Structure prediction request, 852 residues.
Amino acid sequence: MNLTNTKKFDHLPDEKQQIIIDASVAEFADNGFKNASVNKIVNNAGIAKGSLFNYFKSKSLLFEYVYTLALKEVKAYLARVRDESNQDEFFTRLSKIIHAGINFIDKHPLLAKIYFRLLNSDDSPRGKKIIKELHTEAVDYLKQFIMEGIERKELSDKLNISTTAFMLEAILNRILQTYYLDLFDPESDIDKENKEWINSIVGVLKNGLSGKP
Amino acid sequence: MNLTNTKKFDHLPDEKQQIIIDASVAEFADNGFKNASVNKIVNNAGIAKGSLFNYFKSKSLLFEYVYTLALKEVKAYLARVRDESNQDEFFTRLSKIIHAGINFIDKHPLLAKIYFRLLNSDDSPRGKKIIKELHTEAVDYLKQFIMEGIERKELSDKLNISTTAFMLEAILNRILQTYYLDLFDPESDIDKENKEWINSIVGVLKNGLSGKP
Amino acid sequence: MNLTNTKKFDHLPDEKQQIIIDASVAEFADNGFKNASVNKIVNNAGIAKGSLFNYFKSKSLLFEYVYTLALKEVKAYLARVRDESNQDEFFTRLSKIIHAGINFIDKHPLLAKIYFRLLNSDDSPRGKKIIKELHTEAVDYLKQFIMEGIERKELSDKLNISTTAFMLEAILNRILQTYYLDLFDPESDIDKENKEWINSIVGVLKNGLSGKP
Amino acid sequence: MNLTNTKKFDHLPDEKQQIIIDASVAEFADNGFKNASVNKIVNNAGIAKGSLFNYFKSKSLLFEYVYTLALKEVKAYLARVRDESNQDEFFTRLSKIIHAGINFIDKHPLLAKIYFRLLNSDDSPRGKKIIKELHTEAVDYLKQFIMEGIERKELSDKLNISTTAFMLEAILNRILQTYYLDLFDPESDIDKENKEWINSIVGVLKNGLSGKP
DNA sequence: CATGAATGAGAATTCATTCAT
DNA sequence: CATGAATGAATTCTCATTCAT
Prediction:
């Protein structure tokens, strides 16, 4: 099951593991998979080139390890938000999720970079596969969410759950991508503190989805 | 005005131009900008390496030429659909636009590839710039569209036009991306003829946007 | 005798000849022989690449034509100075010659560049040959000069003419090279107007050569 | 401090180092910096292309390493001569220095080539800078020399030290250059054993500089 | 006689991976 | 188990010269 046999890497001291991961994340974030340079990774990590190939048999497997880690963090983050907000009303929760996403981008810009590169290009091993998996997972996450909203009568029971989740995923994803692009655009004059536009979107969704006038 | 000075290329016989464009499109579609190989392009086109650099001073300029061509085709296509459907009711038009997009992907899969790569990665000269421009253009296209719908009383006049356009763009784009990913996924078992899910989305949008019960 | 058969070039309108020469001089001055680009020359001259190869069969022959022209100008200049100053006393004449050289560098920096590159490297067809010819010519020029000085009793009649000319040539050449290097050194803080150091050298020579206390 | 980080190269077996240096020296000597071909160097040295770039990050840094080595040898040689001859009278020493230079050219013709190319062209990284530095160093070397001569009353105390050093440097340099050019001129019919002309120059200098009749 | 498209060898540099120590 | 030297194919781009039109 575990394609990336990392037995050797896992036995390394945590500290050393972290140094290698950090160097890899930085390089992959800046350059994507193919343009990332193993040379630079080992230089920045301060390890021998041969060692990296001892831990991970190839650049591809290193990349899989790193992005798996990145996704795990994203998912854990979102799960936490979902759980912590489970007392809130649906659209409050939705807003919290979006802001959690933005928060994540602010705190882990490199992981965000990897995520968006991964999501949007297929310049990586198993590229398109991963993209579809991510979509599916995100949609499933939102489906469950929507179902809870319907149960609590906060959402119209006439909603087609799958379709709604699909649309919601598209919108949420675009919101985060827009924020991400502005964040990394040196010429952007957008006020990063002003997140009114996000509230506005949530408002429109509320009108459309709650089934109430 | 014309950043990519292509005087020399333009004077080539149409037939030869097309061979070179085809080879370039195929290579960029398969590999994105940075991972595309000029070597492979010239080999596939059957021309000398030096020749390509006579026509286009650099790989970047060749890429700009190619993607400009691709975008021009996409835009012309969408403009035609908008104009031809301007007697139709809003959601009929919306549906036509989506199917036009799908049609385009079917007919020009390589251009679609370039489009989605462009839209979604920043692995190209002026990468993020282009992405934002494309979003803006698409949103503007839809804004105009929505305004017409409101004027004809086919859409609720309470809609926030910008926000709605933003969301619509996100959804339409994801629909096409989903279709595109399935098309290129050899393992996909999805029935490409079955576009019911698209109609279902349009239906939900109709409920949400028309302001009618 | 005329290695560079330039019949064709000579029949061109003077104006066009000059444009081509100017472009060539600029390119050779900036880049030496081998690194000069024929492409750039024809672009700057605004002529077809094939045309240049019609006029001059090769890059080498073009270079020979150009540097011959440049040397002709240098020599004509020096001959004029010698003739115009033939009433002056030896060391006055010497000083005039040096300042004439400096003047030439100021007025024709590109030709000076070619001259010094030629003089000092062998990155050109018949490289070392040319250098030796130039030395010989310069030494001969100075020999004649010295002989006139001895005849007029302005120089000691005990001087070994050849040896003195050799040394004088070395010194004069170094003076001009020093000036030239400063002229093109952007970081040089030397006061280009202050030519006192040159007079000082002439003074020392006067002491050494005139045979008078 | 050490601009050309050559840690990797320094750790190579001396024998291999020498092979690479020899190939580099030969290529740079024959072609100068820009026209030297890294391809040819690695072929002649019998190593992989990538290896050279492991040792030296760029052609420029390889060149810097090589010419630094060459200059170090020249300087060490001259310093030795100066020290070994410090009991001799000034003009004897001067003569020894000149013959030492000639000796060096005979023994290390390739290094001499690099030296004269370096001295006389600016086709190298930091080209003109280096030339001026070399002049300055040579002049300083001679200044010290002249001062010692004055102290010992072997030279006139009326000499302007800087000016004299400048002139002496010009003359010595031209002597060596002349010898060097003859050495490499296959058509030269000069008798390389006959160095009478050099003694003649020293004689003239003695008359001019010693202040004695 | 002028044109400029075509050529293809050659340039410097980077890269992931291997393997002897 | 760690090391880092060695590899050589691949990268983009430049060049002087030719020759059909």
Summary: Chain A is about 75% helix and 0% strand.
